[in-house]
Amino acid sequence: MISLRRSSPSSLYVGRVCLRQPFRFFCSTFFSSVDNVGDKPILVRDFIHSALYDRNHGYFAKRSGSVGVLDKSIKFNQLQGRSAYLQYLDNLYKQNDISWFTPVELFKPWYAYGIAEAILRTANFSVPLKIYEVGGGSGTCAKCIMDYMMLNAPDRVYKNMTYVSVEISSSLAKKQKETVGEVGSHLSRFRVECRDALDRSGWGNVDPQPCWVIMLEVLDNLPHDLIYSPNQISPWMEVWLKKQGDRPQISELYKPLRDPLIERCIKIMDMDRDQITWGDRIVSSTRHILSKLVPKSRRAWTPTGCMQLLEVLHWALPKMSLIASDFSFLPDVKIPGENAPLVSTKKNGRTVDLDSYLDAKGDADIFFPTDFSLLKRIDHHCSGWLKEHTDSPSMPVKKIRTITLDTAAFMEEFGLPLKTRTKDGYNPLLDDFKNTKFYLSVPTHNTK
Ligand SMILES: C[S@@+](CC[C@H](N)C(=O)[O-])C[C@H]1O[C@@H](n2cnc3c(N)ncnc32)[C@H](O)[C@@H]1O
């Protein structure tokens, strides 16, 4: 039997497809999350960064198996329907020691071909095509996009293209080189840089040329911060973590907002408040009364890692076009707070969602839903052309155009959906991935 993780009761919401596997018991070599938090308090985003990306013990650092790889493409048109597909996945799991499959892997090469086609239709080929991929996992997206360009683009496009992968995990960086190297001619056009994409210094100088940035299921794994308010109306406070004396437990500490990244993020999250309606005013007064009668604490997770990455990318690659896909919604989340993550590990071959993010010990994936409308606001803000940055009303308000599409809509527009259809018409790419979306952002030419 297989268990599809992140499925709603109606099985409509499927994210990374996670298969049961024997639990690999790493605890003797894992750091305790406590070692991650010393005597000095740290922000929640630093705790998450370490739990996922610590060089020695982080979830992604050592285990190339944290991203599942299929030996060969699935022949969907030879499968009868949904149950045959699920059975096929179950067998795959039995043969492989993997944690989960992402869509680019499950639907290879078709998923990446859709992305390549979107680039081909939009790119300006007066300059050589340059693609950056952040968090390329096993390298499947890179290889398939280069295959597509080799087979479908004008000769000069493939001949002159470069593909730069920025990958934080050394084991995955190595895997990417192997995957792309399956086609010898790709290697001279491909480079993997093993580094943290959030770190501005790693990007060197500004690259002023037009380019593409691809990020598939990366935003969900970026560090977030937690903010807290003791009731419905008090201002937000930032959450820090500290050890309790000599005891192993970690506790949360609430401090007034001071961290500039959190403050910038909250400002963007609050932007809509400028356009307060009468309805909002009524809600606000009701909150005021409720906070006196029944004070209820609030917690919200803020995408500070996403904000940091977009700030860095807009600075380093000012003419970038962006394609990102991620979860718009995650079902059955146990962690409290708005926009809270799933924290998933394996126990005895079963996927178990943890109740506390503080229990993530390097064997647990921590992933968040993406609020795509907030992503768009952050992107506009980081591109530097929001209203607040312009003095004159005649100045262009923004220099990017964006669109958010359901995965099915994106694949119907740019992909080859017939290739992922089973005999009875069931199409897992279109029918199951209802909780994932694509975000595209391209620079406009009206910047002065
Ligand atoms: C969930 S996996 C997705 C892999 C691949 N994009 C896919 O869809 O199969 C997240 C990937 O992002 C990488 N990653 C996460 N944070 C990163 C960062 N700050 N800089 C570079 N790579 C990062 C991880 O190591 C991993 O390869």
List the bound ligands: S-adenosylmethionine
Average per-residue pLDDT, rounded, comes to: 85
Helix residue percentage: 25-40%
Strand content: 15-25%
Whole-angstrom Rg? 22 Å
Number of helices: 14
**How would a textbook summarize the main sheet?**
7 strands, mixed
Features:
14 helices, 448 residues, 17 strands, alpha+beta, 5-stranded antiparallel sheet, 7-stranded mixed sheet, binds S-adenosylmethionine, globular
Please tell me about this protein's structure:
- By secondary structure, the protein is an alpha+beta fold.
- Helices cover 31% and strands 21% of the residues.
- It is built from 14 helices and 17 strands.
- It has helices at residues 33-36, 44-53, 82-95, 103-106, 110-122, 140-152, 155-160, 170-180, 260-269, 278-293, 304-316, 372-382, 407-414, 428-431, and strands at 17-18, 42-43, 100-101, 130-134, 162-167, 190-194, 211-216, 225-229, 237-244, 247-256, 298-302, 320-327, 342-347, 350-353, 365-367, 400-406, 436-443.
- A seven-stranded mixed sheet has the order 6-5-4-7-12-17-16, with helices on both faces. Strands 2, 8, 9, 10 and 11 form a five-stranded antiparallel sheet that branches. Strands 14-13-15 form a three-stranded antiparallel sheet.
- A hairpin with a 2-residue loop joins strand 9 (237-244) and strand 10.
- Helix 5 crosses helix 6 (140-152), helix 5 crosses helix 13 (407-414) and helix 11 (304-316) runs parallel beside helix 12.
- The longest helix is centred in the middle third of the chain and has 16 residues, at 278-293.
- The chain starts with 16 loop residues before the first strand and ends in a 5-residue tail after the last strand.
- Mean pLDDT is 85; it is low at 1-15 and 18-34.
- S-adenosylmethionine is lined by residues 60, 67, 102, 104-105, 134-137, 166-169, 172, 196-198, 216-218, 221.
- Residues 60, 67, 102, 104-105, 134-137, 166-169, 172, 196-198, 216-218, 221 line the site of S-adenosylmethionine (SAM).
